Amino acid sequence: MYTNSAIRPLIDITKRARETKTILFYERDKVQEICEEIKVLKQATEEINDTESTSEEVHTSSGKLCVYNAMKEKELNAIQLYHFQRIRKTKEAACKETRLPQNEFNRLTNWEQTFYNKYEQLIDNYNSNCPKSLYLNDELHVPKEPHVVVRVMENLERVMTKNGIVEFLKGSQAVVREADSTIAKLINSGYLKKINK
Predict the structure, then answer these.
(1) Residue 70 Cα to chain centre, angstroms
(2) How much is the pTM?
(3) Does the record bear Ribonucleoprotein in its keywords (predicted)?
(4) What confidence tens digit (pLDDT) does each residue in 67-119 have?
């Protein structure tokens, strides 16, 4: 009746939601079921606390209290994890430059929709006060002259590259610009070997 039967599906949904890029529908039935179990456990603990017991019954009732409290804690943690994941997804969606599509926006609860709108407004206000050179939503682009990792096959004293003088020691690794003609010659002649990572 308690814990795993109710919280396992919610934990599985939370894991799946973490891996997807879209926002899933709110699992109201599962959350409500767990909340009802928490109420039942709370009532059971209150009944145990209210009853007067003999010394033997105190021992068993304290064991029951411990188990009930552990189950309540586990169920509360599952609900908090689920809601934390939804908040995180909502924040990520609000931080994007494009607005959340209407079908995903409709998957949010009323509270989450309000949170999304306010958080999006907060981000927009922050970005409008930032200088354009510090604009946070700009996408990063691959550099025009990508760097490669190379392993040095033979000792080279000082090598003049476009980035300056570099000393290569046998067996070491270095990050160099592949488009540099000096580096390309060293790779072709076998002094350096590209490492695929």
Answers:
(1) 27
(2) 0.57
(3) no
(4) 888 888 888 888 888 889 888 888 888 888 788 889 888 988 899 999 999 99
Q: Distance (Å, rounded) from C-alpha 170 to C-alpha 152? A: 5
Which residue stretches of the chain are H helix? 4-19, 28-50, 55-95, 102-105, 110-129, 181-189
Task: Locate 140 and state its tokens.
Answer: 């990063």
- The gap from C-alpha 21 to its chain's centroid, in whole angstroms, comes to 11
Element (H, E) at 159: strand 156-161
CA distance linking residue 98 with residue 10, whole number of Å = 29
pLDDT tens per residue, range 119-149 = 999 988 887 877 666 555 555 555 555 778 8
